[in-house]
Amino acid sequence: MNSKKTNRIATGVIYFLVGIVILLLVGIIGNILISGLPHLSWHFLTATASSFEAGGGVRDQLFNSLYLLLLTLLISFPIALGAAIYLAEYAGDTWLTQLIRTTIEILSSLPSIVVGLFGYLLFVVQFGLGFSIIAGALALTFFNLPILTSNIEEAIKGVPQTQREAGWALGLSNWKTIRGIVLPAALPGIITGVILSAGRVFGEAAALIYTAGQSGSTVDYSNWNPFSPTSFLNVMRPAETLAVHIWKVNTEGIIPDVNLVSAATSALLVIVVIMFNFGARALGNWLYRRLTAAKIK
Amino acid sequence: MGKKKQDLQKVVEKAIAQQKVPHVKFKGIDPQDIDIARLTKPSKETRQERWGKGLTLLAIGLIGILIVAIIGFVGLRGLATFFADRVNVFHFLFTTDWNPSAGKEHVGAAAMIVTSFAVTLLAALLATPFSIAVALFMTEYESGRKVRLLQSVMELLVGIPSVVYGFLGLTVIVPAVRKIFGGTGFGILTATLILFVMVLPTITSLTVDAFKAVPKELRKSSAALGATQWQTIFHVVLRAARARIMTAVIFGMARAFGEALAVQMAIGNAVLMPANLVSPAATLTSQLTSQMGNTVMGTLPNNALWSLALLLLVMSLVFNFLVHLIGKKS
């Protein structure tokens, strides 16, 4: 067999494998959307979940997912921002920095079920928080921190060195330069990073089963007192999210329309993730244009 | 301190005596008036700098504490099986009798360990050729819109929650496997097929990075020697990127090994030594997810589950270590 023939065959094989992967991708996304979208009605979004009858919705789960996401970001963003600034601006090439980087890598590769169980051990049992939104948010913070930190670090490193030098030349301290020059310049990237990590958090279930719990208590959306047990703002109530809901109805559920509910919820999750993915880039680009005179490269 | 202050005083006096800028008049100022203490104190900028650095270091420290806490807590709980309940470590690792509520003689996790490794290895084996093909397609064969499109779909695939994959597996792959291979449809094969899709984007994106890191000159010199595109890819690009492809595969395996819900929904959850690819089995993660809620804290069945969690943690550390080892070698 001569080399030209081998080349042709190899190219053919590669294009064939890529074709299979593309079919697979289209099949998966198509399947989720086609089987789920028809059932995704206003009723489904606004009705409460039923425990044994058909025709329930996901109102509380949807709210819980969003609320949990918001809390997680509120807790993890400041820590991740600080850590990222340190790594991008201050950290030298020492053994300590290496150790920190390794630590973050380990944290990011931990199985989410291990993170969830740790959350259960520490927050639910040790701190006595019980199955609650706040315990879930704290566990998700663990899950979110390494991703968020490396995303923000990338964004900060993307700011040209000349901008920092300009700040120093004006006599600003390093910290003032970071706060006044580097962070605003990195803002589009930071926001993109935050939204991308939000997509991951939104669909996470394994870390939540044993922290935020699997049951939804009765929620009253007109009760704005965050300390009242029925208030939707109460962080001490157990809460089931969309992803946990899919898992639960499929493994333990007894409702007759399991497939229908799961398909619609899956479609909802995937749509939100798509929105996060494209929204992050669109918003990042828009901010970049607004904040700087430069065109995106 | 006295000596230092005197020295400074001298410097100030000298500077005034020698001043060369005529329009700044120091004549009226007595050297004694110059506040040395204020001059030698850290400036506002320095204080800001210290504050900022301290704050960011605090954040880093917090992350460090988190990881130590995770390893500490899970380790302590997981080791209780061996220290408090006196289960033999080798017994735990190499026997297949799993029924912890029946006593310490029945704590053998081998079936789950084997299943976990089986699905991980099979998924990685299946995904690697596809990943390499897609990565080659994206770096060597095509460029521009097609690549960007494929890349955004891959990113989307990473973003799809694992329970959605589990649900897809339950409604699409399980019936298909049942029809084609018989059995219940639950088992290692089904779990492998789901994990294959889940690790594919991870391995692919890291492999793309690996190919992009190969210098253009190598390809050009190979082409200049008259090699065909495939010869260049096979003998130059793949070889140069070998170590990084290996790390990509290990990252994929780490993801597959730790994946819980999708696997749990599709594998059947029977703690048996897997006899074939289509009989129900259980992985470490699936057993943990489904049983943790059914045991009482501090009892042997509960401790045994924590030992499974510890095993997962240790494996995750091992995968990390392997990545570093390969990275250092290349």
UniProtKB/TrEMBL annotation, chain A:
Which organism does this sequence originate in? Lactobacillus xylocopicola
ABC transmembrane type-1 domain spans which residues? 62-279
Q: Where in the cell is it found?
A: Cell membrane
Q: Which residues cross the membrane?
A: 12-34, 66-87, 99-123, 129-148, 181-202, 260-280
Per its record, how is this protein called by name? Answer: Phosphate transport system permease protein PstA
Q: Which PANTHER family match?
A: ABC TRANSPORTER PERMEASE PROTEIN YQGI-RELATED, PHOSPHATE TRANSPORT SYSTEM PERMEASE PROTEIN PSTA-RELATED
Please classify the protein's predominant subcellular localization into one broad category: membrane
Q: Which UniProt keywords apply?
A: Cell membrane, Membrane, Transmembrane, Transmembrane helix, Transport
For this protein, the record's SUPFAM superfamilies field holds:
MetI-like (SSF161098)
State the family it belongs to: Belongs to the binding-protein-dependent transport system permease family. CysTW subfamily.
Cross-referenced InterPro entries = MetI-like (IPR000515), MetI-like_sf (IPR035906), Phosphate_PstA (IPR005672)
Q: Which Gene3D superfamilies match?
A: MetI-like
Q: Quote the Pfam families the UniProt record gives.
A: BPD_transp_1
Q: How does it sit in the membrane?
A: Multi-pass membrane protein
Signal peptide annotation = none
Taxonomically, which superkingdom?
Answer: Bacteria
Automatic annotation (TrEMBL), chain B:
Keyword field contains Transferase: no
ABC transmembrane type-1 domain boundaries: 113-323
The record's subcellular location field reads: Cell membrane
- The lineage's top-level taxon is Bacteria
In the bilayer, the protein is annotated as: Multi-pass membrane protein
Checking InterPro entries in the record gives: MetI-like (IPR000515), MetI-like_sf (IPR035906), Phosphate_PstC (IPR011864), Phosphate_Transport_Permease (IPR051124)
Q: Where do transmembrane segments lie in this chain?
A: 54-76, 109-137, 149-174, 186-211, 245-267, 304-326
Give the principal location in a single coarse category.
Answer: membrane
The record's comment on protein family reads:
Belongs to the binding-protein-dependent transport system permease family. CysTW subfamily.
The UniProt entry, under PANTHER family, shows: ABC TRANSPORTER PERMEASE PROTEIN YQGH-RELATED (PTHR30425:SF2), PHOSPHATE TRANSPORT SYSTEM PERMEASE PROTEIN PST (PTHR30425)
Q: Which named protein is this?
A: Phosphate transport system permease protein
Species name for this entry? Lactobacillus xylocopicola
**Lineage of the native species?**
Bacteria, Bacillati, Bacillota, Bacilli, Lactobacillales
